[in-house]
Design goal:
The protein has 13 helices and 18 strands. The protein is of the alpha/beta class. Strands 15-14-16-13-12-17 form a six-stranded mixed sheet, sandwiched between helices. Helix 5 links the parallel strand 9 and strand 10. Helix 3 crosses helix 13 and helix 6 runs parallel beside helix 7.
Length: 494
């Protein structure tokens, strides 16, 4: 028996699997090692483990061994092949036996020699065993015979391990290792930037870039070939920031104005006249710039409601997730929401989603008259049925869990083409959307980029908290959208 199990209340040995009588469900697991003097020739221990995808990924991350033989794609990433597990993954199971079971706590490796007979394939089940072969009292070492066989009774590896056995008796609660969840890496934003590599850089008015974050973001986007920035703001301030943070802006046009309000007005005028094809916010407040954008006679308004879209790269979600509107419209009306949805659908199509799935969020997934967002969700679905909203598949009301989890939708018996597969989340109001986006960013390790649509040009709203990658992604989305518009292509899917 590889470890002893003790009753937490009586401190007496328990039968394996017996539950702690204190609550009927929990038992304190105590492991006890074997000292050099307690170890006898012929003693054994074994464990059985099946090689999974997560084992391979975690071992690759831990060891740094990225040999494509061990993963589902080959070197070119073009086709699947038989996955061969890391040889040392199996060998590491010997270490687990020695450290956990025999001799147990206090064991220190001296040497190990193994010969590998056959590879371990994904899904193989290994039974690894160790057996005491020799004891050497002069240095308190123990030699073990080691062997692993797979489910076909084939020997995978065999050899020996020599350890320094513990001299002192230890009995303690078995350590609970932290849970590790494997999620995909962030890659959505990199692919957006890569898609712009064959496009011509667009001219972008950068409004009041008078701090490191906003000026550096514009310079980095220019150096990546995404934009040709026109820096609009007090020349002296811009040049001082560039000098302080060693940013080369000698190649870029500067439009000198006195203060941030003038910068907003002039940046919008450049976009309105067609001199620049997009607009980026710098170190001024969003309201100050958007006031000029929304001005009836001199701004960038169209017949469409202006709205913001967060583009979220969430590692635990299998696709790009768009959240709207979480930055512009505080309490949008039903009519506003129709435009907000249409803006997001057209953006999704530009990004390659031919028929985006739109989840209309609320607190519940049934129409409930006392919750206005459920009524509006139902109305938006009917508007889509009648062609008033085009290009996407709408469903709602849906609670957040049903929108992004197929399992949650199945449990609640929701039959929907959108549930669990949403590309776009329409939130009830700005408060809900802003909290949702920030929760994903800070609790789910999501990267967030953002863009404003519905104006004459795409508008990049940056934040001081944005990562450089998110800033580049926001610029890339603006480039893709502006380039599609400039090419005269119809944005909505035909």
């Amino acid at each position: 028996m590889p470890f002893a199990l003790y009753d937490a209340s009586t401190n007496r040995p328990m039968e394996r699997g017996r539950r702690d009588p204190s609550d009927g469900y929990r038992a304190m697991l105590i492991i006890e090692n074997k000292t050099f003097d307690e170890i006898a020739i012929g003693q054994t221990a074994q464990l059985t483990r099946t090689l999974t995808d997560e084992d391979i990924v975690l071992f690759g991350v831990m060891s740094g061994d990225a040999n494509p033989t061990h993963f589902r794609l080959d070197v070119t990433g073009t086709h699947r092949h038989q996955v061969v597990g890391h040889g040392m993954w199996g060998a590491s199971l010997i270490s687990a036996l020695l450290g956990n079971d025999l001799p147990g706590a206090g064991t220190v490796y001296k040497s190990q020699a193994l010969e590998f007979a056959t590879p371990v394939a994904l899904g193989d089940t290994l039974t690894v065993s160790i057996k005491v072969r020799e004891k050497h009292s002069e240095d308190k070492t123990v030699v073990f015979d080691c062997r692993a066989v797979n489910q076909k009774c084939e020997t995978v590896f065999s050899g020996t391990a020599t350890v320094y056995a513990p001299a002192e008796k230890q009995r303690q609660e078995r350590m609970a290792l932290p849970e590790v969840k494997v999620s995909r890496g962030h890659h959505v934003f990199e692919s957006l930037v890569e898609r712009c590599s064959e496009l011509q850089a667009i001219s972008m008015a950068v409004c009041h870039p008078c701090d490191e974050v906003s000026l550096k973001g514009a310079v980095e986007a220019a150096e990546r070939g995404l934009i040709d920035p026109v820096l609009v703001g007090p020349r002296q301030k811009i040049e001082n920031v560039a000098k302080e943070f060693q940013l080369d802006i000698s190649r870029y046009r500067i439009v000198d104005v006195e203060h941030s309000h003038d910068a907003a007005a002039r940046s919008v005028a450049l976009c309105r006249s067609g001199e620049t094809a997009a607009l980026m916010k710098g170190s001024l407040h969003t309201d100050e710039m958007m006031h000029e954008v929304a001005a009836r006679d001199t701004g960038l308004r169209t017949s469409r409601r202006i709205s913001h879209v967060f583009l979220m790269d969430v590692p635990s979600y299998p696709r790009l997730l768009m959240i709207t509107d979480a930055a512009i419209n505080i309490y949008p009306t039903l009519e506003d929401k129709a435009d907000i949805v249409q803006n997001a659908i057209e953006l999704a199509q530009v990004l390659g989603v031919k028929e985006p799935k739109v989840a209309l969020l609320s607190a519940v997934e049934t129409v409930y008259p006392k919750i206005a967002s459920t009524i509006e969700a139902a109305a938006l679905c009917k508007m889509a049925d009648r062609g008033q909203i085009k290009g996407g598949i709408l469903d709602g009301p849906l609670a957040f869990d049903n929108a992004i989890s197929e399992e949650a939708a199945q449990i609640k018996k929701i039959v929907s083409p959108v549930a669990g597969k949403a590309d776009i989340l329409l939130v009830p109001d700005l408060e809900a959307g802003n909290m949702l986006a920030k929760q994903l960013a800070y609790l789910a390790d999501a990267d967030a980029a953002g863009i404003v649509l519905g104006a004459r040009v795409p508008i990049v709203l940056t934040s001081r908290a944005d990562s450089p990658k998110a800033r580049l992604a926001s610029c890339a989305v603006a480039v893709l959208f502006a380039s599609r518009r400039a090419a005269g292509l119809q944005i909505a899917a035909e």
